[in-house]
User: Fold Gfo/Idh/MocA family oxidoreductase from Spirosoma sordidisoli.
Amino acid sequence: MKTPTPLSRRTFLNTLGASAITLPALTDVLGRPITTAGNQDRKLGIALVGLGSYSKNQLAPALQQTKHCRLAGIVTGTPAKAEEWMQKYNIPKANVYEYKTFDRIADNKDIDVIYVVLPNSMHAEFVIRAAQAGKHVICEKPMAITEKDCQSMIDACKKANKQLAIGYRLHYEPFTKEVMRLGQEKVFGQVKFIESSDAFRIGDPTQWRMKKSMAGGGPLMDVGIYAVQGARYVTGEEPVSVTAQFSPKTEPQKFKDVEETLFWQFRFPSGAVSNSTTSYTAGVERLYASCEKGWFELSPAFGYGPLKGRTSKGPIEQPVVNHQAMHMDGVCKDLLDGKTLPGHITGEEGKRDVRLLQAIYRAAETGKTISL
Ligand code: NAD
Assistant:
């Protein structure tokens, strides 16, 4: 492969033409300016449900940087964690709930949004209870482990007249927004093929991620979903068919309940095709698109960053941001402004992905091409 000559930011933008100019992170995912006008002083109160690794290491620190929301409450089954978080983040006891007492959150005016950060199989129950408590909801990916659960979650939020966002942090991330634009606006011509893969070597084999009943599957549910998203947001299309293959298990004792490695291929209406890998046995994190007149890629493409990108014309230069802070601020700004959330971060989008994940499993299990 020919290595591109690195270009300066100015040369790169000039080369791509005026339409390529992307200003640093001051627009939201729909290209609307992010301003604090109107609701300058108001921050929505978020309660995190489940204080595991993602809440502790990513969301709580990000909530110290957000402009439109703040960490107002917690829901946990572990009293020691409650004490630790109350002290560390100055959370009043009145805003601390156990899973059993969670529904009382309905009476708490400090909490506007409930963020469900539990194992995948628990998302549905807690999103539905959050909606019934009259709160807006953010739910981590994958939205649920069945399409039916996704629909029940959407219905519950609709019935309560509350909005449901999925934890699609990359939709607010500047490098990702740039490859969405490069692909969807055909800056390098029609996208022809895509390689979109996300995998890592998993540690503790006893964790819930290794139990199908809790995770819904293996690496596909956990990180393969990013590869599915990547192919979809680069083309801006929905796949029309899928084929898939499980790799033979190299560590069968470890992978008794879930797949170890899985490959799949989507075909899109434009004729574009994508090829993806996900695995819990070794790592890859890359989104590459080959087009009629060039190519572009992100590598790394899906982690917490900094993401890195280049094209056949030179490096992609974008500001490095905190993904979780951008995501929560983006969602909460829209909620504060009384706007309907953009469709591509809502429950409908979450359900589309879960449907595709299930189709990938079906294709791998049957060896057949599944029409979508
Ligand atoms: P984790 O195992 O670190 O935390 C899970 C939390 O759920 C723990 O606090 C645990 O005590 C609690 N819990 C309650 N009931 C449980 C039960 N029956 N079994 C196991 N745990 C139980 O997991 P995590 O990495 O924080 O992931 C939580 C969710 O966040 C998952 O849906 C995951 O896919 C998602 N996630 C998203 C991102 C992202 O980048 N968007 C990153 C990591 C995790």
Notes: Confidence is low (pLDDT under 50) at residues 1-38.
